[in-house]
Write a structure and sequence with these properties.
The structure holds two protein chains of two kinds. By secondary structure, chain A is mainly β. Chain A has no helices and nine strands. In chain B, strands 2, 4, 5, 6, 9, 10 and 11 form a seven-stranded mixed beta sheet that branches. In chain B, strands 1-3-8-7 form a four-stranded antiparallel beta sheet, with no helix packed on it. In chain B, 38% of the residues are buried. Classes of the chains: A mainly beta, B mainly beta.
């Protein structure tokens, strides 16, 4: 499984754009990149998933360069409620032979703190 | 509003006792995960199932932990005997995987906070 590296923590202020970068140098051809968000005392929540280039939804954007060795989660105009831990995961494609794969392995995550 | 339901939400037990945690995955989901979260280790994958069959339980201490899916609507995680080091929040998650496609989104329950004294 591809190992991911993220900053341990980031600080920001309300209204700013936050970009969290994740490194995954040994990402495999079939691996997707997925980001989850976790608030204290809650389970992680899916934010966005992508394979290459750019993906955008109502919550965030995900930028993936051509070599796919890194990815950047972009949160536009953060608010206090975006204070959470953000996890980058790679490797969710099923193994058609064994039926395995889709192993959701979380790294240490990035603690984002948003202040006024 | 479909959600993953875990019971109990909180459990305090004495060392040596058996603990059973239950999870009701979202109806129609064919993949179920069990995680353990602690401050020191973060989120650890204990086991996961596809169509009720265990695919990987390598993250689970085999001597005391067991995970099963008696039917499609129930997943259980059992610890026997429990030890203080098992104190953690245990999360269950479910998702739908079709063929060789990627798992797009896993839905997590609220977790079971286990304290072993």
């Amino acid at each position: 499984l591809a190992k991911t590296t993220q900053p341990i923590s980031m600080d920001s202020y309300e209204g700013q754009e936050v970009n969290i970068t994740c490194s995954h140098n040994n990402i495999a051809t079939n691996d997707y990149i997925t980001w989850y968000q976790q608030f204290p005392s809650q389970g992680p929540r899916f934010i966005i998933q992508g394979y290459k280039t750019k993906v955008t939804n109502e919550v965030a954007s995900l930028f993936i360069p051509a070599d796919r060795k890194s990815s950047t989660l972009s949160l536009p105009r953060v608010s206090l409620s975006d204070t959470a831990v953000y996890y980058c995961l790679v490797g969710q494609t099923a193994d058609i032979i064994t039926g395995g794969g889709n192993k959701l392995t979380f790294g240490t995550g990035t603690q984002l703190k948003v202040e006024l | 509003d479909a959600r993953v339901t875990q019971t109990p939400r909180d459990k305090v037990t004495e060392m040596g006792q058996e603990v059973t945690m239950r999870c009701q995955p979202i109806l129609g989901h064919n993949t179920v995960f069990w995680y353990r979260q602690t401050m020191m280790q973060g989120l650890e994958l204990l086991a996961y199932f596809r169509n009720r069959a265990p695919l990987d339980d390598s993250g689970m201490p085999k001597d005391r932990f067991s995970a099963e899916m008696p039917d499609a609507t129930l997943a259980t995680l059992k610890i026997q005997p429990s030890e203080p080091r098992d104190s953690a929040v245990y999360f269950c998650a479910s998702g739908l995987v079709l063929g060789a496609e990627a798992l797009t989104e896993a839905f997590f329950g609220q977790g079971t906070r286990l304290t072993v004294v």
